[in-house]
Amino acid sequence: MKTDRRTFLKSLIGFLSTPIWYPYRARAGTLVSHPIVQNVGTDCATIVWGTGEGGSSAVRFTRDRGLTRSAAAVARGFPPADTDLPAPYYQHKVALTGLDPNTDYSYAVFADGQGLAEGDGLNFRTSGAGRLSFLAFGDCGSGGAEQKALAERMQQERPSLVLPLGDLAYGRGSFEEFQSRYFGVYREIMKRVPFFPCLGNHEYMTRNGFPYLALHDVPIPSDLPDTDRGRYYSFDWGNVHFVALDSNDPLERAVQGSGPMLEWLENDLRSTRKFWKIAYFHHPPYAGGAHDDDPLSALVRSHVVPILERYDVALVLSGHEHSYQRSYPIRNGAIVRDGEGTVYVTSGGGGAGLYPVSPNSRVMFGRSVHHYLQAEVDGSRLALRVMDISGNEIDRLVLAPSPRVSEAGVVNSASGAPPLAPGTLISIFGRNLATEDQQAAGTPLPRELSGVSVTANGELLPLLFVSPTQINAQLPFVLRDGAALRVRTANGVFDTPVIVSESAPGIFAVAHQNGELVSGASPSRPGEYLTAYGTGLGAVTGPIAAGEPAPFAPLLTARLPVEVEWGTARLRPSFAGLTPGRVGLYQVNFQVPAQLPSGQQPLRLRVGDSTSQPVPVPVALD
Ligand SMILES: [Fe+2]
C-alpha cells in the first residue's frame, strides 16, 4: 500500500505519542502486593511490591513521564512456613537515590523486562522545605466497612505523608492480615504517599512483629541493635521532626535498663533543631477508656512523657483507645496555657470497633467515633482537623507555640555569657523562635528574618542569623544601663530584661597575621603580631549605626583603654577597635612578647573595668 508523505508523518506522530516504549502485559495472579512507595526523603524513596514468583525486577522512573532512569530491585523470598501464606511470597524492593527535594517523580514497575499493568502511571513527591500536610489514624486494620469508608475519604486528601498509629492488621498482624486489611485497603494512597507507621500491640502477636518488620521500609537509626531495628526511628519533613516510638517491648526493655530506646530518644530530640517536634506511638499517656489500666500507657507517662516535654515536643499522637481524645496542653503533668505545653491526641478510630470514652482529668475533648486526623503545617502554625466517616469535622485544633527565651539565654556571642555592652554581637537562645534557619544575605543587616524581630527598648536590632532555637543580633551602640529585650514572632512576643555595662568583652578567636587561627598545631612565636577577634568592647571613636559594617577610613578605635593580659604579661595593643568591613566585630592587634614561657597561656582582654573570658593561646619558643 502506498502512503503519501502527510499520512506517513501523521502516523509517525501518532506512533511517537503512544507510550509503547515499555510494553505492559498483565500478569494475573502474579502480583500479590501492589507497588507502593515507602521511606520517602528529600533525595530518596523506596518502591516495594510483592509477587508469587522470583526473577529479575526493576523500577523505571524520572521527574517527567519519560521513565528514562532505571534501578534494579532486590528480591527476597519468603517460604509459606515463614508467612502463613498458601504460596511462596517474593518481596521486591528498590531504593531510589539521588532524587531532588520537593519534586514529583513518575515510576513504573517491571518484572523480567515486562511492565506490570498495575505498576504503570504511578508517582510520588519527595520531601523538602515549605508547607506540608499529613494524615494520622490508629487501630484501623479490621478490614471492615468503616475502615474502607475512611480510606475512600482519605483518597480525596492530598497529604505529604501518613502516620499509622499501630494495630494496623487485626487480629494478629500476620502477613495475610497485612495484605488484606492494610496494604490492600490503603493501596490507592500508598502508591503515591509514604506511610511512616509505628507498632501496636497487635503487631506483636505474630512472631514479635516479624511480618510488620518484613513489610516496612523505614529510616533506621545508626548503632541500634538488631532487636530494635525498624521498631522506632525519626525523620524530618519540611520544618517538622517526626519521631516514631515503639511503646511495646522496646519500651519495657528500656525501662528495665536492657534496651536503648529511651536513651536514643533523648539524644535524637537533643540533636534536632527543627521548629516542630511531633512524636507518635501506640499507647496513649492521657486518654480515658477501656485501656485505662494498661501498664504500657503507665510506662509511657512515667518514662516517655518527661523526655518529650523536656525537649518541647508540641504534639503527641497515639491510638489504642478506640475513640478520639484530645488533652489540654500539659507540662510536667499540669495543665498549662495554650502554646506552653504538649498536646496529646489519641486517634484510635481508624476502623476497628469503638470503645466508650471515660473521664480523664487531662482530656479536654473526647468522642467515640470513627475518624482520621488531617494536619497542615505552615511555618509556625499547625492546624489539625478531625474528620468523621461522613466527612464532618468533629474537632479542630490550632497549635501556634509562642516564642520563649531560656533562663539567662541572652549572651555575648563570643564569651557565651552576660553582661552585654552597647554594640555587642549577642546570641539569644530559646525555643519556638524562627521557623527555619536563615542567615542575613548581606549588609546593612535586616531587622526581620524568617518572621522574627528583636527590639531593645523599642529599637529594632539588626539580625545576622535566626533559627528555631537561636538568634544572633547586634545591640545598638547607644544603650543605657538596662535594656528591655523583646523577641517577636508570628505567634507572639517574649520579653526579657538584660543587664548592660559600658564594656563586656568576649573573644571569638586569636589569629596570626595571615588569618590562620593560633592553635596547638599552629602556635604563636615571640615577636610576631597576633589579632584577637571579639565583641563587647563598647563605644568607639566615631559615629556608626548598629548593623552597618565598620569603615576602612577612618578606623574606629575603642574609647575605653584596652590591655591584653597573657599569662603574667600585660601588653599594650597596637590597635583596638572595630574590624573594617565587618559588623559588630572588634579586633585587638598585639605583639607576642619575648618573656612568655613555652606552652599554653590564658589570654584575656581587659577593656575599662571589664575582662573577657580566658582563651588558651599556645606559644612555641623554637
Ligand atoms: Fe492497641
Account of the protein in words:
With 622 residues, the protein is mainly beta. It has four domains: 109 residues, Sandwich (Immunoglobulin-like); 270 residues, Metallo-dependent phosphatases (Purple Acid Phosphatase, chain A, domain 2); 96 residues, Sandwich (Immunoglobulin-like); 114 residues, Immunoglobulin-like, CATH 2.60.40. It is built from nine helices and 42 strands. The protein has a seven-stranded mixed beta sheet, covered by helices on one side. Strands 1, 4, 5, 8, 9 and 10 form a six-stranded mixed beta sheet that branches. A hairpin with a 6-residue loop joins strand 2 and strand 3. Helix 8 runs parallel beside helix 9. The protein is elongated. The N terminus is likely disordered. The structure holds fe (ii) ion (FE2). The site of fe (ii) ion has 6 residues, from loops.
Short characterization:
This protein is mainly β and 622 residues long. The chain folds into four domains: 20-128, Immunoglobulins (Immunoglobulin-like), CATH 2.60.40.10; 130-399, Metallo-dependent phosphatases (Purple Acid Phosphatase, chain A, domain 2, 4-Layer Sandwich); 404-499, Immunoglobulins (Immunoglobulin-like, Sandwich), CATH 2.60.40; 506-619, Immunoglobulin-like. Helices cover 13% and strands 36% of the residues.
Descriptive tags:
single chain, 4 domains, Purple Acid Phosphatase, chain A, domain 2, 7-stranded mixed β-sheet, Immunoglobulin-like, mainly beta, 36% strand, 6-stranded mixed β-sheet
